[in-house]
Amino acid sequence: MHSIAAMIMNHASSRKVDYADVRVIRRTTESISVRNEIPESVEVSETFGVGVRVFVDGRWGFAATDDIVHDRLDGLVERAILGAKAAAVAGGPKEHFDPPPAVTATHASFCEVDPQSVSLEEKLSMLTACTRIMGGEKSVEQCEATMDAWHEVKVFYSTLGSQIEQSSTVCGAGISAGALARGDMQVRSYPNSFRGNFARAGYEFIDAMRLDDNAAQTAAEAAALLRAPMCPDLPEADLIIGGSQLALQIHESVGHAIEFDRILGYEASFAGTSFLQPSDVGHRIYGAPIMNVTADATLPHGLGSFHYDDDGYLSVRDVIVDSGRLVGVLTSAGIAHVLDRRSNACMRAEGWNHFPIIRMTNVNLEPGEAGSLEDLIADTSHGYLLETNKSWSIDDKRLNFQFATELAVEIRDGKRGRLFRNPIYSGMTPAFWASCDAICGPSEWQLWGVTNCGKGEPMQVAQVSHGCAPARFRKQRLWGA
Ligand SMILES: [Zn+2]
Q: Which of 34, 121, 272, 328 is geometrically suited to a Cys-Cys bond with 127, CB 3.0 to 4.6 A?
């Protein structure tokens, strides 16, 4: 991989380009699904390819191939240069690029047990056992258990002299039980919906979830939801939002809104722009004074973690919201200068065949001082605890949102009470975050992995994480449907 990268950079250096970089990437993926004790799918795939970016007189060009034959690779730089020239013909303002310092580095993510070293038989046996246990619950008829793993090696070279090799392993798993009766279906998931939870880690992360030990409880909760009454319709309810749901709330109403390309209007066609303006940075009140948000690509187990981004910038931990005030956004070497700043390293491409764009790193709500979840419940006279996402919707300015969760538990006089099915809450981003009056402490704070964040055209899928602890939001619209 290094020899391919070096050869392409030699070729680029011999041409009249202002800058060029190359990414050589090999990625393997394994995805396993079991339904009702039957293996539904086992997919293993590998991609290996090369992507070259060139910067010529203020225009980017990009070319990529998985046809790794040396004499064909010669033409790759030429194709990228042709792209840059075509961009010049198309017109528009020239682009900016603040080159990073040249660096030589090798980095590997934490991984105790390589998921590929665990046999398929063992994985299938564990997942099948989970669906068998869940299926033992009366009325639970759809039992699913899934597991996914990715391993990637990426070599980045640039004409500045950077030579960076990064390798990483990501994996995760989850179970869900679907209870059916009288035309209604209620689903309960563990540890999260949409194939579970994920981390930049090895199989030890999946082992630690103890999916089989949690299968019976998950199924029992699905069955209980089936018998539970519909969530009441309340114009002003106090909500405690559990960690995995709050992670998605952060993703949609903070993470995407603070992508600086959206704020500048450069990104709009897929999922819109942002309600924020460039002049808001440093001034705008985003939420309550207890709201502190960081974008931290240095967390060891985050899906949005890396050592160097695809501009070649070193990963950082940056403050985005400081005591409720917006002080930072997600930037790149191309647009950070608009704020008179250096890039905070958010450029990532889905793979070798994509041009990097601004992506979330790990956008986290920092822990507060409300202690444990049980402490927060005990501190709530009347409210609803909402757990685990079922569906989401947010407008193209990241303002109006609506989320459904798997369950709501009523809290009365500081104690858990009745269970309700089909809860939905909605709100407006600034008012919602302004209503936050308590955030649980570090003991409840954890990272939630999101593997399916879509952005761009052609669409690119990115993996990100959000760290948070359960938090309370006053006087929110809540109903059942
Ligand atoms: Zn997303």
A: 34
